[in-house]
Specification:
Helix 4 (79-88) crosses helix 5, helix 5 (93-120) packs across helix 11 (246-271) and helix 6 packs antiparallel against helix 9 (191-223). This protein has helices spanning 13-24, 28-36, 49-69, 79-88, 93-120, 129-151, 156-168, 176-184, 191-223, 229-236, 246-271, 297-305, 315-336, 338-341, 347-370; strands at residues 38-41, 242-245, 309-310, 313-314. The longest helix has 33 residues, at 191-223. A two-stranded antiparallel sheet has the order 1-2. It has 15 helices and four strands. Bound molecules: protoporphyrin IX containing FE.
């Protein structure tokens, strides 16, 4: 029920502003949402904060990215110099670039943590299958942001890592050659590749992410937060589930954590500035120590370890097909886990999650040490 607004009476400025608006626009739905939304309180409630943290770090990326755009120049001749100008000449440019770089890495780490927490709590089970699917798409989009952004400073490390990374697409059967040319804008990594990665990074990926983030958040608001199966069973046995009001109790806690993240980002930017390295020289020999961003290391190292030929199939082709299959299984988890869909524990999917986590950690460290 909407309350009758009355702008004539006193009250704080914000109350009067809301009342003024309500006289003109029907805000009863918003008011109802704000007054009734609750977050379940139980032993695993801490994991709920990871989604909000992902959202915050994404907003940091958008804000700092827009500021970087004011000075960045997307050409092979000027990109490196423009980033050097940002970090040495522009007031607080170093801070903005460092926060953008650190926050990108933190964002990927937090999104992975969010995925695994959702996986282990089986929060993907019916009716949240589409929330999971939209989340996996968001993870892929975050990885694409990382991959495309890595090349933009046009430094040596990024140039050769992109050469290797885009070359891997060539192993995809049938369309591989086309994909490499599509990504590179030709047969080699050149200024044309930089233009394409720039377009991806500042236009295509932000637009796609806005849509998918909208879907993700809309579904979450419509469905409310899930509770773990163990808690759900207690509720079915008649135990009461405590709820915390979303406004202001939960939001205050969320914002507090965002402050901590911001402080951490500022400290990292100050004490551990992101290196710019040397400008890319396409004709220079491949330098030692070329490696992708840490979140691609596990895949990178797996491809290195696969034998050149397995049962007559090229090892790299097999590896790429394996990653494709893993991505498809990841998307389909809510539809494959029938036990969780019925509200029953599903230890085999927990074991699959543990195996995936162990694989990612071990192969990332192994890949890092092997370079
Ligand atoms: C940019 C990336 C992402 C953002 C900004 C984001 C944001 C959020 C937010 C704000 C919530 C509500 C609070 C919470 O449960 O943590 C949430 C819930 C959820 N997210 Fe994400 N998310 C992202 C990526 C992902 C990924 C990669 C997955 C999994 C594949 C995922 C699956 C889910 C699911 C199933 C829920 C509902 C959880 C529940 O009801 O208990 N999200 N997300």
């Amino acid at each position: 029920m909407s309350r009758e607004p009355d702008v004539s009476r006193g009250g704080s400025l914000s109350h009067r502003a809301v009342a003024w608006l309500e006289e003109r626009v029907d805000l009863s739905d918003v008011r109802h949402f704000v007054e009734t939304k609750g977050v379940p309180v139980h032993g695993h409630k801490l994991w709920y904060y990871l989604g909000g943290m992902s959202l915050f770090l994404f907003i940091v990326q958008v804000a700092t990215g827009i500021l970087l755009l004011l000075y960045y120049r997307p050409s092979a001749e000027e990109a490196y110099e423009s980033v050097r100008f940002i970090v040495t000449q522009v007031e607080f440019g170093w801070l903005i670039r460092n926060v953008h770089s650190w926050s990108a890495n933190l964002l990927v780490a937090v999104v992975f943590a969010h995925l695994f927490s959702v996986l282990f709590l089986k929060a993907y089970r019916k009716p949240r299958e589409l929330t999971w699917v939209s989340g996996v798409v968001l993870l892929f989009l975050m990885l694409a942001f990382g991959f495309s952004g890595y090349l933009l400073p046009w430094n040596e490390l990024a140039f050769f890592a992109t050469k290797v990374g885009t070359g891997i697409a060539g192993a995809v059967p049938i369309v591989g050659g086309f994909m490499v040319r599509l990504l590179r804008g030709g047969d080699e990594v050149t200024g044309a590749t930089l233009s394409r990665f720039y377009g991806l990074h500042v236009a295509i990926l932000p637009a796609a992410t806005t849509v998918w983030l909208g879907v993700h958040l809309l579904l979450i608001q419509r469905q409310g937060m899930s509770v773990p199966i163990s808690v759900e069973r207690k509720v079915q046995r008649g135990e009461r589930l405590r709820q915390m009001p979303f406004f202001p109790d939960y939001v205050v806690r969320d914002v507090l954590l965002w402050y901590v993240a911001l402080a951490l980002l500022a400290a990292l930017a100050l004490f551990s500035p992101w290196e710019l390295g040397v400008k890319a020289d396409p004709f220079a020999p491949v330098p030692a120590g070329i490696r992708p961003e840490w979140y691609f290391l596990a895949m990178f190292h797996t491809l290195k370890l696969v034998p050149a030929h397995v049962l007559g199939i090229e090892g790299e082709v097999l590896g790429v097909l394996g990653f494709g299959l893993a991505g498809a299984v990841l998307l389909a988890i809510p539809f494959l886990d029938r036990r969780a869909a019925r509200g029953e524990p599903s230890p085999s999917f927990t074991a699959l999650g543990v195996a995936a986590l162990v694989y990612l950690i071990v192969f990332s460290i192994w890949g890092y040490l092997a370079v």
